[in-house]
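Dissemination and training. As part of the outreach component of the grant, students in the summer workshop were shown how a complex can be specified as a set of sequence lines and then modelled as a single object. The example used during the hands-on session is reproduced here so that future cohorts can follow it. Participants entered these lines:
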Amino acid sequence: EAQVTQNPRYLITVTGKKLTVTCSQNMNHEYMSWYRQDPGLGLRQIYYSMNDEVTDKGDVPEGYKVSRKEKRNFPLILESPSPNQTSLYFCASNRAGGSGYGYTFGSGTRLTV
Amino acid sequence: AQSVTQPDIHITVSEGASLELRCNYSYGATPYLFWYVQSPGQGLQLLLKYFSGDTLVQGIKGFEAEFKRSQSSFNLRKPSVHWSDAAEYFCAVGPQIDMRFGAGTRLTVKP
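and obtained this result:
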């Protein structure tokens, strides 16, 4: 089954304790992104990646890191989490091309700091 | 820079009634436009998309949307709402890698 897999689904941590949220896709998609969803704000893009080793900042990158060492994986790293990073996080992947393919989303990770 | 406005935070309709969710966008070129639905506790599912061609696009679950360039709008419609349509709906504008989402419209369906 074609899908984007995020882990864990729920995560409770304390301020300053480094954590990683994993994301993997099995569709051979070139594009991958991380979004955070907050009430009244919709989804805001944190980072995106156009292919292996290529990443770029979205609208709200502060406090986050990503890596794209291989095409299928795109982990989100919070080196020193803070309470304002409590949110619902989504990983998504998309194929490159000119026909406007939409993102396929994972099931989300609810983080509480 | 692209942006999306969904003017209605919350809409309530009766089951069987028609539905229209509004979306206005700002984009400098021909936009990619999308509607997604999020059921409680779930991820986002793509309902439909527009890039070019016919301005009325059909999607899954009986939804359709109409692109109106002159009004910078991409409103979502359904002729008869079912209780299972209760969810949050997000409009988004492309490009594919750098999509911007609206704040969402929560739909409640009355029996």
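The mean pLDDT of chain B is 93. Students were then asked to discuss how this feature might be tested experimentally.
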